[in-house]
Amino acid sequence: MREPGRDTVLVVDDSPETLSFLTTAIEAAGATVLVAVSGHAALSVLREITPDVILLDAVMPGLDGFETCRRLKADAGLAHVPVIFMTGLSETEHIVRGLEAGGVDYVTKPISAGEILARIRVHLANARASQSARLALDSTGRFLLAVDAAGAVRWCTPQAGKLLRALDPAAAEPVLPPAASAWLHGDAAGPLTLPAGDGRRLLLSRIGRVGADEILLRIALDDDGGEVEHLRRELGLTRREAEVLLWVARGKASRDVGAILSLSPRTVTKHLEQIYAKLGVENRTAASALVARALPDPRG
User: Fold this and answer.
1) pLDDT for 1 beyond 90
2) Selecting from 1.10.10.10, 2.60.40.1180, 1.20.81.30, 1.10.510.10, what CATH number does the domain 227-294 have?
3) I need a surface site. Which of 45, 73, 149, 186 has the fewest CB within 10 A?
4) What predicted TM-score, i.e. pTM, was given to this entire model?
Protein backbone atom coordinates (compact mmCIF):
# COMPACT_ATOMS: atom_id res chain seq x y z
CA MET A 1 0.00 0.00 0.00
CA ARG A 2 1.30 3.44 -0.90
CA GLU A 3 1.94 5.94 1.87
CA PRO A 4 0.22 9.35 1.68
CA GLY A 5 2.59 12.17 0.76
CA ARG A 6 5.33 9.83 -0.51
CA ASP A 7 6.20 9.16 -4.14
CA THR A 8 5.85 5.54 -5.14
CA VAL A 9 8.34 3.92 -7.51
CA LEU A 10 7.81 0.50 -9.08
CA VAL A 11 11.11 -1.23 -9.88
CA VAL A 12 10.88 -4.14 -12.32
CA ASP A 13 14.01 -6.29 -12.72
CA ASP A 14 14.86 -9.98 -12.60
CA SER A 15 18.15 -9.31 -10.79
CA PRO A 16 17.94 -9.47 -6.97
CA GLU A 17 21.13 -7.39 -6.73
CA THR A 18 19.65 -4.59 -8.85
CA LEU A 19 16.38 -4.66 -6.90
CA SER A 20 18.23 -4.45 -3.58
CA PHE A 21 20.51 -1.63 -4.74
CA LEU A 22 17.69 0.48 -6.16
CA THR A 23 15.36 -0.16 -3.23
CA THR A 24 17.99 1.06 -0.78
CA ALA A 25 18.84 4.17 -2.84
CA ILE A 26 15.25 5.19 -3.58
CA GLU A 27 13.95 4.61 -0.05
CA ALA A 28 16.87 6.67 1.30
CA ALA A 29 15.61 9.51 -0.92
CA GLY A 30 12.21 9.36 0.81
CA ALA A 31 10.12 7.39 -1.70
CA THR A 32 8.18 4.15 -1.32
CA VAL A 33 9.46 1.27 -3.45
CA LEU A 34 7.44 -1.57 -4.95
CA VAL A 35 9.29 -4.42 -6.67
CA ALA A 36 8.45 -6.96 -9.37
CA VAL A 37 10.78 -9.63 -10.75
CA SER A 38 9.07 -10.04 -14.14
CA GLY A 39 6.86 -8.28 -16.63
CA HIS A 40 3.83 -10.36 -15.67
CA ALA A 41 4.43 -9.64 -11.97
CA ALA A 42 4.65 -5.93 -12.75
CA LEU A 43 1.30 -5.96 -14.56
CA SER A 44 -0.24 -7.75 -11.57
CA VAL A 45 1.06 -5.04 -9.24
CA LEU A 46 -0.28 -2.35 -11.56
CA ARG A 47 -3.77 -3.82 -11.39
CA GLU A 48 -3.76 -3.00 -7.67
CA ILE A 49 -1.83 0.28 -7.46
CA THR A 50 -0.69 3.08 -9.73
CA PRO A 51 2.88 4.21 -8.97
CA ASP A 52 4.27 7.66 -9.72
CA VAL A 53 7.11 6.34 -11.87
CA ILE A 54 8.29 2.95 -13.15
CA LEU A 55 11.88 1.73 -13.53
CA LEU A 56 11.75 -1.12 -16.02
CA ASP A 57 14.45 -3.58 -17.01
CA ALA A 58 14.44 -3.89 -20.80
CA VAL A 59 15.66 -7.49 -21.05
CA MET A 60 13.92 -10.09 -18.86
CA PRO A 61 12.91 -13.72 -19.38
CA GLY A 62 9.37 -14.23 -20.62
CA LEU A 63 7.60 -10.90 -21.00
CA ASP A 64 10.39 -8.41 -21.68
CA GLY A 65 10.38 -4.76 -20.69
CA PHE A 66 9.42 -3.49 -24.14
CA GLU A 67 6.21 -5.55 -24.30
CA THR A 68 5.45 -4.85 -20.63
CA CYS A 69 5.63 -1.13 -21.36
CA ARG A 70 3.41 -1.42 -24.43
CA ARG A 71 0.76 -3.26 -22.41
CA LEU A 72 0.70 -0.81 -19.53
CA LYS A 73 0.63 2.17 -21.91
CA ALA A 74 -2.43 0.65 -23.58
CA ASP A 75 -4.27 1.05 -20.24
CA ALA A 76 -5.74 4.55 -20.06
CA GLY A 77 -5.38 4.53 -16.27
CA LEU A 78 -1.64 3.89 -16.49
CA ALA A 79 -0.65 5.66 -19.70
CA HIS A 80 0.39 8.83 -17.86
CA VAL A 81 2.92 7.05 -15.60
CA PRO A 82 6.51 7.75 -16.80
CA VAL A 83 8.58 4.67 -17.58
CA ILE A 84 12.38 4.79 -17.38
CA PHE A 85 14.09 1.84 -19.03
CA MET A 86 17.13 0.22 -17.45
CA THR A 87 19.36 -1.68 -19.80
CA GLY A 88 22.88 -2.89 -20.36
CA LEU A 89 22.23 -2.51 -24.06
CA SER A 90 23.57 0.78 -25.34
CA GLU A 91 22.92 0.09 -29.02
CA THR A 92 20.73 2.71 -30.65
CA GLU A 93 18.17 0.14 -31.82
CA HIS A 94 17.40 -0.92 -28.24
CA ILE A 95 17.15 2.66 -27.03
CA VAL A 96 14.74 3.41 -29.87
CA ARG A 97 12.69 0.30 -29.05
CA GLY A 98 12.29 1.50 -25.48
CA LEU A 99 11.17 4.96 -26.51
CA GLU A 100 8.81 3.59 -29.17
CA ALA A 101 7.26 1.29 -26.56
CA GLY A 102 6.33 4.34 -24.49
CA GLY A 103 9.36 4.96 -22.30
CA VAL A 104 10.35 8.53 -21.50
CA ASP A 105 14.02 7.87 -20.74
CA TYR A 106 16.65 5.17 -20.24
CA VAL A 107 19.69 4.51 -18.09
CA THR A 108 22.44 2.00 -18.82
CA LYS A 109 23.78 -0.51 -16.35
CA PRO A 110 25.71 -0.40 -14.08
CA ILE A 111 23.34 2.20 -12.68
CA SER A 112 24.52 5.23 -10.75
CA ALA A 113 22.29 6.00 -7.76
CA GLY A 114 22.74 9.75 -8.23
CA GLU A 115 21.82 9.58 -11.91
CA ILE A 116 18.70 7.47 -11.48
CA LEU A 117 17.42 9.63 -8.61
CA ALA A 118 17.94 12.78 -10.69
CA ARG A 119 16.07 11.28 -13.63
CA ILE A 120 13.22 10.17 -11.35
CA ARG A 121 12.88 13.72 -9.99
CA VAL A 122 12.81 15.24 -13.49
CA HIS A 123 10.21 12.86 -14.86
CA LEU A 124 8.04 13.08 -11.75
CA ALA A 125 7.97 16.87 -12.14
CA ASN A 126 7.13 16.60 -15.86
CA ALA A 127 4.41 14.02 -15.23
CA ARG A 128 2.83 16.15 -12.51
CA ALA A 129 2.80 19.23 -14.73
CA SER A 130 1.17 17.25 -17.53
CA GLN A 131 -1.32 15.63 -15.17
CA SER A 132 -2.23 18.99 -13.64
CA ALA A 133 -2.98 20.37 -17.09
CA ARG A 134 -5.16 17.36 -17.91
CA LEU A 135 -7.02 17.59 -14.62
CA ALA A 136 -7.59 21.31 -15.11
CA LEU A 137 -9.19 20.61 -18.47
CA ASP A 138 -11.16 17.64 -17.14
CA SER A 139 -12.47 19.43 -14.05
CA THR A 140 -13.88 22.27 -16.13
CA GLY A 141 -15.59 19.85 -18.47
CA ARG A 142 -13.56 20.88 -21.47
CA PHE A 143 -14.36 18.80 -24.53
CA LEU A 144 -11.37 20.06 -26.48
CA LEU A 145 -9.41 18.70 -29.39
CA ALA A 146 -6.83 19.95 -31.85
CA VAL A 147 -6.69 18.94 -35.51
CA ASP A 148 -4.32 19.69 -38.33
CA ALA A 149 -5.31 21.39 -41.57
CA ALA A 150 -6.43 18.06 -43.05
CA GLY A 151 -8.75 17.37 -40.09
CA ALA A 152 -6.60 14.66 -38.47
CA VAL A 153 -6.87 14.67 -34.66
CA ARG A 154 -3.58 15.71 -33.05
CA TRP A 155 -4.77 15.43 -29.44
CA CYS A 156 -7.98 15.54 -27.43
CA THR A 157 -9.11 15.56 -23.82
CA PRO A 158 -10.63 12.32 -22.49
CA GLN A 159 -14.16 13.76 -22.71
CA ALA A 160 -13.70 14.82 -26.32
CA GLY A 161 -12.23 11.42 -27.15
CA LYS A 162 -15.33 9.65 -25.83
CA LEU A 163 -17.65 11.85 -27.87
CA LEU A 164 -15.55 11.40 -31.00
CA ARG A 165 -15.69 7.62 -30.60
CA ALA A 166 -19.48 7.88 -30.59
CA LEU A 167 -19.22 9.19 -34.15
CA ASP A 168 -17.26 6.14 -35.31
CA PRO A 169 -17.17 3.32 -32.71
CA ALA A 170 -15.18 1.10 -35.08
CA ALA A 171 -12.26 3.54 -35.32
CA ALA A 172 -9.13 2.61 -33.37
CA GLU A 173 -8.40 6.27 -32.60
CA PRO A 174 -10.68 9.34 -32.35
CA VAL A 175 -11.31 10.73 -35.83
CA LEU A 176 -13.43 13.45 -37.39
CA PRO A 177 -16.00 12.39 -39.98
CA PRO A 178 -15.67 13.67 -43.58
CA ALA A 179 -18.40 16.24 -42.98
CA ALA A 180 -16.28 17.84 -40.25
CA SER A 181 -13.22 18.01 -42.49
CA ALA A 182 -15.28 19.78 -45.15
CA TRP A 183 -16.70 22.16 -42.53
CA LEU A 184 -13.19 23.10 -41.41
CA HIS A 185 -12.39 24.41 -44.88
CA GLY A 186 -15.77 26.05 -45.44
CA ASP A 187 -16.99 29.56 -44.73
CA ALA A 188 -19.61 28.69 -42.11
CA ALA A 189 -18.86 30.49 -38.86
CA GLY A 190 -21.33 28.58 -36.69
CA PRO A 191 -20.97 25.13 -35.14
CA LEU A 192 -21.41 21.90 -37.07
CA THR A 193 -24.11 19.44 -35.96
CA LEU A 194 -23.14 15.76 -36.19
CA PRO A 195 -25.38 12.72 -35.55
CA ALA A 196 -23.89 10.47 -32.86
CA GLY A 197 -26.40 7.63 -32.62
CA ASP A 198 -29.17 6.99 -30.06
CA GLY A 199 -30.88 10.13 -31.31
CA ARG A 200 -28.08 12.28 -29.92
CA ARG A 201 -26.34 15.08 -31.74
CA LEU A 202 -22.91 16.60 -31.24
CA LEU A 203 -21.92 20.20 -31.82
CA LEU A 204 -18.44 20.95 -33.16
CA SER A 205 -17.24 24.54 -32.71
CA ARG A 206 -14.08 26.39 -33.68
CA ILE A 207 -12.13 28.05 -30.88
CA GLY A 208 -9.03 29.22 -32.70
CA ARG A 209 -5.59 28.22 -33.88
CA VAL A 210 -2.76 26.74 -31.81
CA GLY A 211 0.51 27.49 -33.54
CA ALA A 212 0.83 27.47 -37.30
CA ASP A 213 -0.92 24.22 -38.19
CA GLU A 214 -3.27 23.22 -35.36
CA ILE A 215 -6.93 24.18 -35.09
CA LEU A 216 -8.49 24.08 -31.62
CA LEU A 217 -12.07 22.80 -31.52
CA ARG A 218 -14.72 22.12 -28.90
CA ILE A 219 -17.16 19.22 -29.16
CA ALA A 220 -20.22 18.86 -26.95
CA LEU A 221 -23.57 17.15 -26.77
CA ASP A 222 -26.37 19.23 -28.21
CA ASP A 223 -28.69 20.12 -25.33
CA ASP A 224 -31.90 19.76 -27.37
CA GLY A 225 -32.76 23.33 -28.11
CA GLY A 226 -31.16 25.16 -25.22
CA GLU A 227 -32.64 23.27 -22.26
CA VAL A 228 -29.33 23.29 -20.40
CA GLU A 229 -28.96 27.04 -20.80
CA HIS A 230 -32.59 27.55 -19.77
CA LEU A 231 -32.08 25.53 -16.57
CA ARG A 232 -28.87 27.38 -15.85
CA ARG A 233 -30.64 30.75 -15.98
CA GLU A 234 -33.88 29.74 -14.30
CA LEU A 235 -32.41 27.74 -11.42
CA GLY A 236 -29.15 29.61 -10.82
CA LEU A 237 -26.90 26.67 -11.67
CA THR A 238 -23.58 26.38 -13.41
CA ARG A 239 -23.70 24.92 -16.91
CA ARG A 240 -22.21 21.63 -15.74
CA GLU A 241 -24.76 21.41 -12.90
CA ALA A 242 -27.55 22.10 -15.38
CA GLU A 243 -26.28 19.33 -17.67
CA VAL A 244 -26.19 16.85 -14.79
CA LEU A 245 -29.64 17.85 -13.57
CA LEU A 246 -31.19 17.60 -17.05
CA TRP A 247 -30.00 14.00 -17.48
CA VAL A 248 -31.13 13.11 -13.95
CA ALA A 249 -34.56 14.53 -14.76
CA ARG A 250 -34.60 12.30 -17.85
CA GLY A 251 -34.31 9.30 -15.55
CA LYS A 252 -30.61 8.54 -15.89
CA ALA A 253 -28.71 7.01 -12.97
CA SER A 254 -25.55 8.71 -11.75
CA ARG A 255 -23.38 6.11 -13.48
CA ASP A 256 -25.16 6.73 -16.79
CA VAL A 257 -24.92 10.51 -16.37
CA GLY A 258 -21.19 10.12 -15.79
CA ALA A 259 -20.82 8.05 -18.96
CA ILE A 260 -22.78 10.58 -21.03
CA LEU A 261 -20.89 13.62 -19.70
CA SER A 262 -17.51 11.89 -19.27
CA LEU A 263 -17.52 12.38 -15.49
CA SER A 264 -16.78 9.92 -12.72
CA PRO A 265 -19.81 8.77 -10.69
CA ARG A 266 -18.23 10.45 -7.67
CA THR A 267 -18.08 13.77 -9.52
CA VAL A 268 -21.72 13.40 -10.54
CA THR A 269 -22.63 12.80 -6.89
CA LYS A 270 -20.73 15.94 -5.85
CA HIS A 271 -22.58 17.97 -8.47
CA LEU A 272 -25.91 16.59 -7.25
CA GLU A 273 -25.09 17.54 -3.66
CA GLN A 274 -24.43 21.12 -4.81
CA ILE A 275 -27.58 21.13 -6.95
CA TYR A 276 -29.78 19.95 -4.06
CA ALA A 277 -28.32 22.63 -1.79
CA LYS A 278 -28.93 25.38 -4.37
CA LEU A 279 -32.47 24.24 -5.11
CA GLY A 280 -33.38 23.55 -1.50
CA VAL A 281 -34.43 19.96 -2.17
CA GLU A 282 -33.35 16.65 -0.70
CA ASN A 283 -33.43 14.15 -3.56
CA ARG A 284 -33.48 13.67 -7.31
CA THR A 285 -37.25 13.25 -7.42
CA ALA A 286 -37.82 16.72 -6.00
CA ALA A 287 -35.10 18.17 -8.22
CA SER A 288 -36.65 16.54 -11.29
CA ALA A 289 -40.00 18.08 -10.41
CA LEU A 290 -38.38 21.52 -10.43
CA VAL A 291 -36.92 20.78 -13.86
CA ALA A 292 -40.37 19.90 -15.19
CA ARG A 293 -41.73 23.22 -13.93
CA ALA A 294 -38.73 25.25 -15.12
CA LEU A 295 -38.60 23.99 -18.70
CA PRO A 296 -41.11 25.39 -21.20
CA ASP A 297 -43.87 23.04 -22.29
CA PRO A 298 -42.87 21.67 -25.71
CA ARG A 299 -46.57 21.68 -26.71
CA GLY A 300 -46.59 25.47 -26.40
Assistant:
1) no
2) 1.10.10.10
3) 186
4) 0.49
